[in-house]
Design a protein that fits this description.
This protein is an alpha+beta fold and about 80 residues long. The chain has three helices and three strands; from the N terminus they run E-H-H-E-E-H. It has a three-stranded mixed β-sheet with strand order 1-2-3.
Length: about 80
C-alpha cells in the first residue's frame, strides 16, 4: 500500500481521492509515521471478515463427540441390509 506525506496529500488531494475511489487505498504519513488510511467508502471493512475463534468459550464440545449417535447411525446402516 502506498504511503504519502501530508504535504503531498494536500497538493494532490483530488488525484489521491480519485485513486482511492477506484480501490487504490493509501496511507497519509506525518514525519514518516503512518497517521491515517484512506479507502473507498464501499471497500470491505476488515472487521466484517470471518474470524477464527470468534465463538471461543461460548460453547463446549462433549468428550464423547466422536461417538455421539453411534448406535443410531449403526442401526440405520444395518437396518438397510436385506
Amino acid at each position: 500500500m502506498r504511503s504519502v506525506n501530508i504535504h503531498e496529500a494536500k497538493t494532490q488531494l483530488s488525484r489521491l481521492v480519485e485513486e482511492a475511489a477506484r480501490g487504490e487505498s493509501f496511507i497519509i504519513a506525518k514525519a514518516g509515521k503512518p497517521m491515517v488510511k484512506v479507502v473507498a467508502i464501499d471497500a470491505p471493512v476488515a472487521d466484517a471478515r470471518r474470524r477464527l475463534g470468534f465463538l471461543a468459550g461460548r460453547f463446549s464440545v462433549p468428550d464423547d463427540f466422536d461417538r455421539m449417535g453411534g448406535v443410531e447411525i449403526e442401526a440405520s446402516f444395518e437396518g438397510g441390509k436385506g
